[in-house]
Amino acid sequence: MKVFKMLNGSTGKMIAVSNLNYINIFDALYTKHRRTGIVADADCTNIDNLLVKCGRYKLFDPKYRWLILASSKNYRDIFEGVDINVDVDITVVYPARNSNSTTKYIFMDIYNPASEGGGSLKTTHLGFDNDSLDRRLLELETNKNWIRRDLTGVTFNAMVVLHDPFVGNYEDYIISDDHREINTYDRFHYRLMYQCKDHHNFSFNTSWGKLYGYKTSNGTMDGLVGEMEQRRVDMGLSPLFIQEDRAKVISYGRRTWFLRSAFVFRNPKSLNSLEIFVRPFSAALWFAVFLLAIVSAFVLRFSLRCETNHRVDTPLESTWSYVILSVIGSFCQQGVNAVPAFFCGKIGIISLLLVTTMVYQFYSASLVSSLINVPLVLINSLDNLLRSNLKIGIENIAFNIQYFKRTTDPSALRLYNKWVLDKEDEAYLNASDGLQLMKKGQYAFHVELVKAYAYMKANLRDDEICEVTQLPMFSAISTYANFVKHSPFQNLINVCLQRIAESGVMRKELEFWHDKKPECVYASNINTGIEEFYPAISVVGVGLVFGLNLLMLEILYNLWTQNRLLQFIN
């Protein structure tokens, strides 16, 4: 009651106290969220059995703070066989027996680095008190992570996932620097965890597998997550992204890696080569130019008709065909054959020539720049990609397969139905095969960017690198350290990873393992091919065919007219 009154008065909060002799002990102590303080007498009968059961019911995790009052320093036997770990908060207080000292109470911190990993009970002298017990309880503060940083060589079971094939022994492969684009983030995370191993003085009993962990048909998890769910593995040496079904059976730690994937393809210069000639002007501007041509034709014909009515000696031609050809010639910088004498006609011709010159300059400059400069990224969405003439492939990894099962993005589902559904053998390729098809052109391949960048740097020329465009199907995904559910070592490893990040080591490792996108060194001597220019040739061809057809019609009409004339004369 003395402790209760002291806590209730000093904190200013209502604190509940229960007498465990009259209620179910474990139902009373179990909590998911509340912080609970427990005071126990080390001299009680069967206190050792009580502590063993509390360890089984996870009543020593960080939500619980234990204060055990002992009558002497011979208290270690009560912790024999008790499941406690490095994250416990147990303070043992016993009275000093030295009659010559003014010390009344001695405070000891109790923990085990890993009770299931071969650890032994550790005690740390926290201090002593010359005053009353109640005051010392509130003044006691300790940095547990620093004091308990030495785990004394305990061994943890750990597992690393290597989903891409590799050559040789995995233990040698995982620490090598060769082919960094293969199993990149697994080897990156492995190195970070091994730095924590050295810092905290523990060891790993390491195994490896090919699956990260997805729910199977019987409701259990496979791969790394399944091993942690069955508690055959204490922590993962590969990072995992967060999923709801995984979070129910494992615990996540600090973020270490961003998984970036995207479609990579050699960007076509246009979705349709006709767009090269249409793109320089917007639809509204094309409409304005067309309207200007019509108005100019009417003004020019009106001027020529008026001038023809007043010039009997040399009348000017003012037919519609002549006027339309003159306007088109003006837009094409061919000039106007008519030379009006009236000021209204001269002003109209000068205005038309000025406007068409500016339109011609803007149009030709935009057209030329679109042909010789770095190609515009015309495929900037999944819908544009689906409308293009590019074939599509997906890297054959579990995440991509699971993504299509979970996504609700309509564009991604349309892509799946068009290119993947019932075509899995053709759609899912390994990274090297898919990137080779991408290099040949007219192929978009969805792949981890770290693999794509390494391939581009080794196999593509500078001009080909400039043509490569990336289009993400989903945003970058964070991956995290992972542990068994409610792992007592989670906080310790998280602090270690944070220290690695703050010291700059994590960034250094990230720059080493993740290649940057190769820079585009663009050359100016790029030739325009027939695929870009064929619409202009098509216009000439269509004009010739149309002109020949009109010529045939005119010939036939003239023959018909002559026959009618002969019949009339006869």
Write a compact overview of the structure shown.
This protein is α/β, with parallel strands linked by helices and 570 residues long. It has 23 helices and 16 strands.
What does this protein structure show overall?
- With 570 residues, the protein is α/β, with parallel strands linked by helices.
- Among the domains are: 2-147, no CATH class; 264-269 and 376-475, D-Maltodextrin-Binding Protein, domain 2, CATH 3.40.190; 274-372, Helix Hairpins (Orthogonal Bundle), CATH 1.10.287; 534-570.
- It is elongated, with a radius of gyration of 41 Å.
- Helix 3 links the parallel strand 1 and strand 2.
- It is built from 23 helices and 16 strands.
- Strands 1-2-3-4-5 form a 5-stranded mixed beta sheet, with no helix packed on it. A 5-stranded mixed beta sheet has the order 13-12-14-11-15. The chain has a 3-stranded parallel beta sheet with strand order 7-6-8, sandwiched between helices.
- The protein has helices at 2-11, 25-29, 47-56, 133-139, 144-147, 170-174, 184-200, 223-229, 244-247, 274-278, 283-310, 320-331, 343-372, 382-387, 398-406, 410-420, 424-427, 431-440, 449-459, 462-467, 490-502, 505-513, 530-569; strands spanning 36-41, 64-69, 90-95, 105-111, 122-129, 155-161, 203-209, 235-236, 240-241, 250-259, 261-266, 391-395, 428-429, 443-448, 468-471, 477-484.
- Helix 7 crosses helix 21 (490-502), helix 7 runs antiparallel to helix 22 (505-513) and helix 11 (283-310) packs across helix 12 (320-331).
